[in-house]
Amino acid sequence: MERILVIEDEVGIVDFLERGLSAEGFEVRSALDGVKGTELALSEDIDLVVLDLMLPERSGSEVLAMIHEARRGLPVIVLTARGEVEDRVSGLDAGAVDYLVKPFSLSELAARIRAQLRVAGQTQATRLSAAGIDVNLLTREVHRGDQLVRLSTTEFELLVYLMRNRGRAVSREQILRAVWGYGYDPGTNVVDVYVGYLRRKLGSGRTPITTVRSVGYIFDGATD
């Protein structure tokens, strides 16, 4: 079941969307301000965000920018009372995939959500995105934010393996078999060496690759 996050400060609209989208077969989470909404969008397994632009604590535009920076592949539908052309263009340019003006039809919103989830499903087959890191599996390009990260073949395969196992600790033996293709040698430190290379190339800030003592590593997907 796809998980939809509604970030909206009007309680009546939130209740309407929670009941309506649940009836459409979605699991719905919600937040009433921009700070909580950002936290949920970046820390939970969310498939799509419905975002109001007029929010307390942190504006919808700021939330959209932070989501686009940290989880570029997460689709965001902007839902707002602002219907001017320049507002729609601004939202789309900032990373929104669609724009719906209040008052709106629930059936239309649900249809747009399903359409964007279909697009996202096709995209996810060729891309991985988490913690501000975007991996194109076809071109083998890696970006962290707006910066291109140049990786060797082995570093790329290591990153892909860790991201595909996001949130799960994997042992050095599992990594060796998946990336290098041979069994675990207790005397080798090749995994640790390449994790070090990868961390340095991904740049400054909090690394999403965490050491799990006596086990191996985990890509925790946390944001910088």
Task: Pick out its properties.
alpha/beta; 4-stranded antiparallel sheet; 224 residues; single chain; 43% helix
Question: How would you explain this protein's 3D organization?
Answer:
The chain is α/β, with parallel strands linked by helices. The chain contains eight helices and twelve strands. The strands form three sheets. Strands 2-1-3-4-5 form a five-stranded parallel β-sheet, sandwiched between helices. A four-stranded antiparallel β-sheet has the order 6-7-8-9, with helices on one face. Strands 10-12-11 form a three-stranded antiparallel β-sheet. Helix 2 (about 35-45) packs parallel to helix 3 and helix 6 (about 155-165) crosses helix 7 (about 170-180). The mean pLDDT is about 85.
Please provide a brief summary of the model.
With 224 residues, this protein is α/β, with parallel strands linked by helices. 43% of the residues lie in helices and 21% in strands. The radius of gyration is 20 Å and the shape is elongated.
List the helices and strands and how they pair.
Elements: E1 3-7, H1 11-23, E2 27-31, H2 34-43, E3 48-51, H3 60-70, E4 76-80, H4 85-93, E5 98-101, H5 106-124, E6 127-130, E7 133-136, E8 141-144, E9 147-149, H6 153-164, E10 170-171, H7 172-180, H8 190-202, E11 209-212, E12 216-219
Parallel strand pairs: 1-2, 1-3, 3-4, 4-5
Antiparallel strand pairs: 6-7, 7-8, 8-9, 10-12, 11-12
Helix pairs in contact: 2-3, 6-7, 6-8
